[in-house]
């Protein structure tokens, strides 16, 4: 019997893994460090994921946030592609409201030419930043209400599918799948990303894969997945729904170490939610922080949706999450302090979860 190979969308579980496992990385800038070191760590994370058997790794677009260095996903994906060999790479996501659809089509067409069969295009509706920064990106007042029209324009450039008479009929994204009527490469699969119901419904209607941000909108996970599945219509891309969720997960050699690092994630999120984003705090800073009663409650509630502990604890938590949601793939993210801790976590989880490199 021939060995099963990963599908561009439907990955193949390795060993005893219940579903394929992937990684979301934000190029986290730790306290006491800088963006250069953060990008070096993301490269090491990608190398680790590549050799450990993870299915894909995505980077997310954020702007004007001191603690996140992944402001340019396409540039970072190209770099990671040059340092990996089998791992699928993509955006989780590119914020369509921030960019011209033609520019995105050209960027990801270039990536698909550089790393054939390994590129994903994940799209989000929100700008991923404040309105002033979003306006600086596009030099116009951005609006998520334009998403449907811009999505249609993007697919038109990617597929060369503008109808006769369309003003962009003779404009081509180069490199791209269609140039002078000759198919030059397969375009990257498009994923719709969301933290609410809008993208879930649209992904279902289009018959596309859907990724939900469970790591910061856990209460909406099950309703969004139900909406996606209920509205799903088979397409040339998928004959049945394919859903993935991103979950915060961190493993360490000891439970105490895992808990110390998880607190850094909680404090960082507290600062973001209270309008004070900054560098990822260290475990010592998280322990020394003077929490009010409301802040302590926020941290406890936030960490309730994070899977952390020793490797077997994390694997058990992830397996339970898959069972509760019925997802086809799981993407984990661990934006904790310190590059070595993040790399070690991926290694521990891969071994415990049953991945094979």
Automatic annotation (TrEMBL):
Residues 23-328 form the Luciferase-like domain. Gene3D superfamilies: Luciferase-like domain. GO terms for cellular component: cytosol. GO terms for molecular function: oxidoreductase activity, acting on paired donors, with incorporation or reduction of molecular oxygen. InterPro entries: Bact_Lucif_Oxidored, CmoO-like, Luciferase-like_dom, Luciferase-like_sf. Signal peptide: none annotated. It comes from the Bacteria. To bacterial alkanal monooxygenase alpha and beta chains. This is Luciferase family oxidoreductase group 1.
């Amino acid at each position: 019997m021939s060995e099963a190979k990963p599908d561009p969308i439907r990955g193949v579980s390795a060993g005893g893994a219940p579903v394929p496992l992937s990684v979301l990385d934000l190029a986290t800038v730790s306290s006491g460090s800088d963006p250069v070191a953060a990008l070096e760590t993301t490269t090491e994370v990608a190398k680790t994921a590549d050799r450990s058997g993870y299915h894909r790794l995505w980077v997310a677009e954020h702007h004007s946030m001191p603690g996140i260095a992944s402001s340019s996903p396409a540039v970072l994906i190209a770099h990671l592609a040059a340092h990996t060999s089998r791992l699928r790479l993509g955006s989780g996501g590119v914020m369509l409201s921030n960019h011209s659809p033609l520019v995105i089509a050209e960027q990801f067409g270039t990536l698909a030419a550089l790393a054939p069969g390994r590129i994903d295009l994940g799209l989000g509706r929100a700008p991923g930043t404040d309105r002033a920064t979003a306006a600086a990106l596009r030099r116009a007042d951005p609006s998520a209400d334009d998403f449907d029209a811009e999505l249609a324009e993007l697919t038109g450039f990617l597929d060369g599918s503008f109808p006769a008479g369309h003003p962009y009929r003779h404009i081509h994204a180069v490199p791209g799948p269609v140039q002078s009527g000759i198919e030059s490469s397969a375009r990257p699969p498009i994923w719709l990303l969301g933290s609410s119901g809008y993208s879930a419904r649209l992904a279902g209607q289009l018959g596309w894969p859907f990724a939900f941000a469970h790591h910061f909108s856990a209460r909406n996970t099950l309703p969004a997945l139900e909406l996606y599945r209920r509205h799903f219509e088979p397409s040339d891309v998928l004959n049945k729904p394919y859903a993935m969720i991103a979950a915060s997960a961190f493993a360490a050699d000891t439970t105490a170490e895992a808990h110390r690092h998880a607190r850094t994630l909680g404090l960082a999120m507290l600062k973001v939610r209270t309008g004070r984003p900054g560098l990822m705090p260290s475990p010592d800073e998280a322990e020394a922080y003077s929490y009010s009663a409301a802040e302590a409650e926020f941290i406890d509630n936030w960490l309730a949706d994070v899977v952390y502990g020793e490797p077997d604890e994390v694997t058990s938590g992830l397996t339970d999450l898959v069972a509760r949601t019925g997802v086809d793939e799981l993407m984990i993210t661990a934006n904790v302090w310190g590059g070595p801790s993040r790399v070690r976590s991926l290694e521990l989880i891969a071994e415990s979860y049953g991945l094979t490199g």
